């Protein structure tokens, strides 16, 4: 007849069994905490949740420079505000449509009352060269008469930009913080679009090369080159979005109009931080920041000229950092001549009118 194991050995084996089961269960459970970028805010997710949560949780921008990590000041205030929208961005397909690269393409513009007539020309050009593609027109303070006219334009979707959802500084148009938030709102509607200001005029409808460039570079192409980034950026912005100041000083800044083909990578590395900066006044519009450059004689092209480009400054730093300060990766080739910038009423094309479309 078997005597069995001694009592103390039985207890040891039982304890070992419990420990092994605990380790197995813990190892097989998804460890979301290890992913600092893409996290869920609750697990398991409630089946009756009314809206998706914003999945990006990082609030301090960082960059590796010569083996050292430089971390910017916290943008947690902006992250908290962005999470309130509870929306996930729409991402573009991994590959281009072989039959029509422009399938799903949209256009977005915006205006206050004083730039409405210039925007009419931008819309007319787009209607002519890209018929039947939706054009979203954000109202930043139009008159009732202008809204009524806009709602008669073909393929144009009127969008009231609700400033009451945003901090006070976003409501001031001269901080240009509304621009990133307008793009953030568009990414809930479309993954691929041209972002145009009132002076934007298309010259051609064949934009396949722009798509190819966006496919290879992560998703953003800009068009209008200007002064060096450090020359037109308030130094305080670098406290939030650090970078290699020497290389940024050698890299031209590019105008804010853009082709956006949203991908997870460009959203994580560029757009997320652009949106957070826009929601924090000290980042997008530091104290003393002015758009107009004073009359100075800088000693070099990279020296700060005493002026600031607000949303453009932030976007240029982020894109330059992301692309290793290689301008050719995200600047459209000038010789391709996709667009021209006309800061006056041009009337190159006649506006097409249809029924109203209000959103």
Structure description:
- It holds the Pfam family DUF1647.
- This is Nucleotide-diphospho-sugar transferase domain-containing protein.
- InterPro entries: DUF1647 (IPR012444).
- The protein has helices at 7-28, 76-84, 116-129, 144-150, 168-171, 178-186, 208-217, 245-249, 264-278, 281-284, 311-322; strands at 62-65, 68-71, 106-111, 135-139, 156-160, 192-195, 200-202, 220-222, 225-228, 252-254, 258-261, 339-341.
- With 359 residues, the chain is α/β, with parallel strands linked by helices.
- It has a domain at 106-341: Spore Coat Polysaccharide Biosynthesis Protein SpsA, Chain A (Alpha-Beta Complex), CATH 3.90.550.10.
- The strands form four sheets. A six-stranded mixed beta sheet has the order 5-4-3-6-11-8, sandwiched between helices. Strands 1-2 form a two-stranded antiparallel ribbon.
- Helix 4 (144-150) links the parallel strand 4 (135-139) and strand 5.
- Helix 6 runs antiparallel to helix 9.
- The longest helix has 22 residues, at 7-28.
- It is globular, with a radius of gyration of 25 Å.
- Mean pLDDT is 82; it is low at 21-51.
**What would CATH call the architecture of the domain at 106-341?**
Alpha-Beta Complex
Average pLDDT figure: 82
Q: Please state the overall shape, judged from the principal axes of the Cα atoms.
A: globular
Report the count of strand segments. 12
What's the CATH C level of the domain at 106-341?
A: Alpha Beta
Strand order of the largest sheet: 5-4-3-6-11-8
Distance linking N and C termini: 85 Å
Computed structural class: alpha/beta
Biggest pleated-sheet summary: 6 strands, mixed
What do we call the CATH homologous superfamily of the domain at 106-341? Answer: Spore Coat Polysaccharide Biosynthesis Protein SpsA, Chain A
Uncertain stretches: 21-51
What value does the Rg take, in angstroms? 25 Å
Protein name: Nucleotide-diphospho-sugar transferase domain-containing protein
Organism: Capitella teleta (Polychaete worm)
InterPro entries: DUF1647 (IPR012444)
